[in-house]
Structures are given as C-alpha cells and as structure tokens.
Amino acid sequence: MAISSLHATTSLHSPCTTNTSFRQNQVIFFTTRSNRRGSTRQGGARTFQVSCSVDKPVVIGLAADSGCGKSTFMRRLTSVFGGAAEPPKGGNPDSNTLISDTTTVICLDDYHSLDRTGRKEKGVTALDPRANDFDLMYEQVKAIKEGKAIEKPIYNHVTGLLDPPELIQPPKIFVIEGLHPMFDERVRDLLDFSIYLDISDEVKFAWKIQRDMAERGHSLESIKASIEARKPDFDAFIDPQKQYADAVIEVLPTQLIPDDNEGKVLRVKLIMKEGVKYFNPVYLFDEGSSITWVPCGRKLTCSYPGIKFAYSPDTYFGHEVSVLEMDGQFDRLDELIYVESHLSNLSTKFYGEVTQQMLKHSDFPGSNNGTGLFQTIIGLKIRDLYEQIVAERAGAPTEAAKV
Amino acid sequence: MASTLTNVGLSTPAAASLARPQRVTGAGRVVFPFRRSGFAAVVVRASGPSTPPDISEKMSESIDKAKEACAEDKASGECAAAWDEVEELSAAASHARDKLKENSDPLENYCKDNPETDECRTYDN
C-alpha cells in the first residue's frame, strides 16, 4: 500500500478558448437588475462574454431535507472539482449561492413563492409545492442550461423575506440543491444527474439534536415536535423524489452494535441506478455479484466496532440498481486506503484520490464514515460524467450546438 | 493547505486526524433514549462560536409561537408551518455558526485572498 506519489489537486479540464468560434462563444444580453420576476431578460446593456467552458452547463440536482447534510455534500463536491466555492463577491451577504471556478450551486429555497409570513398566513410549510414557484424554477434552470444568464430571486433565511435578485452566469457545472429538485417533471428532465440524501428518522433526530440542543429555547421536545410536525409534508412531497434519483445515499443506524444506543456509528448505503448514461456504478471485487466484506482481519486491524461492507445488485422503485453499503467507521488512515484500493470504478485520476479528498476535509461531518466516503465517490462520478459530456460534445460539434 | 499524502506517514500522529476529534466531556454528555426504536443519541454540545443573537432570539421566539400554534390542533397547517419556521431558523443558526467558525482565523482569511504571500505559502516537502 505504498502511496509515494500522489498529486496535489486536480481540476476539471475542458476546452477553453477565447476565440470567437461558433461553439465556444457566448453572447449574453442582460439589463439592469430589476425586481420583476421573470427569467432571462434581453436587451439593454450588452455584455460580451467569451466563455471558458462548454457552451451548455451540465446540470446536477441534489435533494434532501433541511439539516441533512446538503451543505457538507456541496463542499465535498466542489472540492473534487477543484477550487473552493464561495458566496458571490460583493453581493447580498445572505445569498444562498456558492460559486467556484467550475461550479455554481444554487439553493432552491430561492424559488419560494410565499415568504415566511405568507406561509404562516396560509398555513403551509416550505415543503409544500404551493409555497414554491416551479414555473420560474423551470424557466431559469432551462435558461442556464441553454447558456443564458438569469436574475434569480434570493430567499433570505434570516429575515424570511424575498430579497432583490442576483445575476447568475452559466457555469460549467450548475447544481440545484434543495427540497424539490426532482419534484417538477419539467425541471427533472433538465437534470443530467440527480442525487437524493435519504436520512432515516433515527439518524435525522440524532443529527438535529447535535445541531440544535445548545440553542436557547430548544429542547428534545421541541426538536421532536418540529420533525413530527413537518413529517406529513416531507412524506408527501420530498421523500417520493428519491425514486427519480440516479444515486441515493441512505443513512441508517449501525447494525454492528446490537441495540446501539449512541447513534454515532452509521450504516450508509449508496444506491446507484444502472443504465444511466455517463455513470458507471462503483463495485466491490466482482461487478454484479453479491458480496459481504469485512476488511478487518489479519492484514488490517480495526478498532471496535469494526467495518463491514456489502455490495449487491438490487431493484429500487422498479429500477435495476447496484448497492454498496458501509457499516462502521474509519479510525485510521490505513483503513481508508485499504478500502479504497479494493473498490473498482471509482473514477479517480490517481491512486489514493478518495483518501486524499477525505483527509483534506477531515473536519467535515462524516469524514470517518460512509457518508463522507460515498459523497466523495459521487463527487468523482459527477466529475467523470462532466468530462465525458464535454468530450462527446467536442467530438460532435454540430450535435452539441443543437442540444 | 498541503493536501498531498506524501508527507503523511501511515503511522504518524497525522493519521489520527482522520478520526473526528471527540469533544465528549462529562458535562456535555446527554443520553437520550429514542422512544420508537430504543435507539439513543449522544449529545455533544459543540464548543465554538455561538449563534448571532438576532437569529438566536428569533429562533427561541419561533419555538414559543410554534408551541402556541399547536396547542389547539397538532395536525393543523398552522402548527406545521410554525414548526417549519423553527426548522428554517435552526438551519440558518447552524449555518451562521459555521460561517463564524470559518471566519475565525484571521490568517486563513488573509490567505484566501493572498495565497502567494510568504506567510501563506505551503510546502509539500
């Protein structure tokens, strides 16, 4: 397991020109900022932008409930793509957007049609489709996918109000994260890849206790009441989206400790849809077989409660899937490297890249268990998907121009 | 920050950094039994920056209001909307704390914008 030569960082490579070739070039027209709700506005001041990316962004959807690790996932994802993601410079300090060299992540809460007061008056939660403007969401995601800039509203999570919109330029990779990326069929059809974070009730409860218990006014009762009150809408509008996801990360309590009463050790499943273009599921030892693997033994010493992997083909909402499961947690670096060396189809650029990414963010939640491992793997898979799409477009320019 | 593994020996103390630091102290430990499944959680009161007072205040107000809104009918839309507001503010509070934590190191902040200066250089070997 020598790891003598690992490269520092990688970033996405794509054709990058400043000439005025037909394909690479984007001309974007936009006007002064206005509060009018609408998608792309044309006319007015002309901005000429030579894009250093492919002409059409690749669009990724990430769905999960509030407090279920979307932000951590996004930080891992943008890190795999290279470069740190930051809020837009000089914009609204309460903007929910993150921008890096390659990637722009927007939060779908920005498409709330009802602000906090409006929801309260009507007695609907943010999970309810009636509180969200799917027409605008569709129009704007479509515009971005066509390479056009948008004036996207900003939902302010502190004040609960809709702030004046911000200008979003089409990036190489456009991620929409939030409660409803796969709810509306029109939006769903625009996604090149979609992910659902499925957190079991037990784990959700444990995570929210960790997040909220120190807050003034919160108690176990209030945390429980909040989860319970939101659950009917969650079950009706959020949970069903997982059937459309290309990858689902399911987070469950461990089975390694009988009657585990700590909630610290997790069993995490990565459910990967088969037959998705540009996406080849990760596998363990033998593609398509069913395997249970306990890496801890003579070659690798693990501490209690150990690590257990499983891999098998399965069906998920009628789709063929491959499921990779990890129960337990990494306590030492060599455990992670050992595991990485036994997984295939990881889409890494060099040996040890998964381990490197996990180490780089060892302060993020989940860096020692399956949540961090699978989020990192999905990040690598999306990078791979992006590069395949770019390569295909470069190889077939006339076709790419039509998309 | 140096991100290669080349300077991380497998048996050096650096390897231990993979495991998240455990902040379990006697005082911060609360064990809560889950009613439904018998599952329980260890609560670790995280040290670090506290929530900005304006968000904190809003949140604790929203909790009181949610309790009030649910007093009559737990299944009402008003009750769900009120607790949803609590969730939204709790998430906002958590993000605000993360932001404070991120911005708490002045050198890190300086180096974000000035990575080429002497004090910000990192060397792999």
Automatic annotation (TrEMBL), chain A:
MF terms in GO: ATP binding; phosphoribulokinase activity; protein homodimerization activity
InterPro entries: P-loop_NTPase (IPR027417), PRK (IPR006082), PRK/URK (IPR006083)
TM ranges: none
Domain Phosphoribulokinase/uridine kinase residue range list: 59-257
CDD domains: PRK
Subcellular localization, as worded in the UniProt entry: Plastid, Chloroplast
Top-rank taxon: Eukaryota
Recorded metabolic or biological pathway in which this protein acts: Carbohydrate biosynthesis; Calvin cycle
Keyword rRNA processing among UniProt keywords: no
Any GO BP annotation: reductive pentose-phosphate cycle
EC number: 2.7.1.19
A Pfam family matched in the record: PRK
Keyword Transferase: yes
NCBIfam families linked to this entry: PRK07429.1
Family indicated by similarity: Belongs to the phosphoribulokinase family.
Protein name: Phosphoribulokinase
Lineage: Eukaryota, Viridiplantae, Streptophyta, Embryophyta, Tracheophyta
Automatic annotation (TrEMBL), chain B:
Disulfide partners: C70-C79, C111-C120
Domain of life: Eukaryota
Region (Disordered): 1-22, 94-125
Chain intervals with Polar residues compositional bias: 1-10
Residues of the CP12 domain: 55-125
Keywords, in A-Z order: Disulfide bond
Record-level GO cellular component terms: chloroplast
Stored SMART domains: CP12
Feature: compositional bias, Basic and acidic residues: 95-125
GO annotation terms (biological process): negative regulation of reductive pentose-phosphate cycle
Keyword Disulfide bond: yes
Protein name: CP12 domain-containing protein
Phylogenetic placement of the source organism: Eukaryota, Viridiplantae, Streptophyta, Embryophyta, Tracheophyta
